[in-house]
What does this fold into?
Amino acid sequence: MEGAAVSAEVRSIKIGSFTAPNNLWLAPMAGVTDGPFRALCLRGGAGVVCAEMVSAHALHYASPRSLRMLRVDESEKPVSMQIFGSDEQTISEAARAAEARGADIIDINAGCPVKKINKAGAGCVLMKDPVHLGRLVAAAVKAVKVPVTLKTRIALKRGVLLGDEMARVAESEGAAAVMMHARAAEDVHAGEPDLDALAKVCAAVKIPVFGNGGIADGRTAKAFFDAGCAGLLIGRAAVGNPYVFQDIAQELAGQKPLPLTSARRVEIYLALIEENVSRYGEKIGLGRSKKTSGYWLRGFPNAAETRGRFVRMENLADVRALFQSISF
It folds into this structure.
């Protein structure tokens, strides 16, 4: 985080055998945290970037799409690769595959509330069977040399807290850290995070606990640190502002971050588009950028019209001209 004084909360952190440059990390988000976005978030101050979750079952059957999701460029490191599954064999295989492709950390998902994943016995339903979840963590730990972490939630249903138990299971089976979403699975991304429940999780284990859920600025970050978190996972606030990590560090240090003006948002979005084009070529790179344009253009003047024009464009020069023509 160039030029930013670092607060007492923002610091380097050791996760097992790996030391991250800071403890403000990009959370994994399906369909969002691909390679170009990860690279941009690292430039924006993230200490580690977490990739989209990959199915262990699909990797077992050598799914080309899933194998592509494990590709890591040096500009995306340090990176945590998240896997999900329901049996020890495929979790072990997936962990080894991610390690072989350059993952610095392997993260097991036990918090996703998506029905399709839950029907396969993965995601947050694993919280119902701590013994089985523990076996999955142990299998991954045994399979790789890099640190293994567990991402889960404080509860399945509001008020029925399970987070501290999940953290103890992870710690006992060799996980190097716990990534804890401070909302119940039934709440998905809605509502206020339960910081009291999160504080109980932090107090329950000796391994680092990273808090997640609704962190968007210095004020919310401080609340999570005050609850006892060793680090933070920042997700949705990074969509539209990959420099949110740097901004939060500056706020925590008592400094005023650079305002996120509409003009700056355009500049950042163009950087992401160009990263996609550089990596995948003009046609595929623009196509990938168009899929998330709704996130990035929200709130812009004539956003619907601008997005409509953008999705019809086929070369980068026209895209640059379009965004540079927007008046604020």
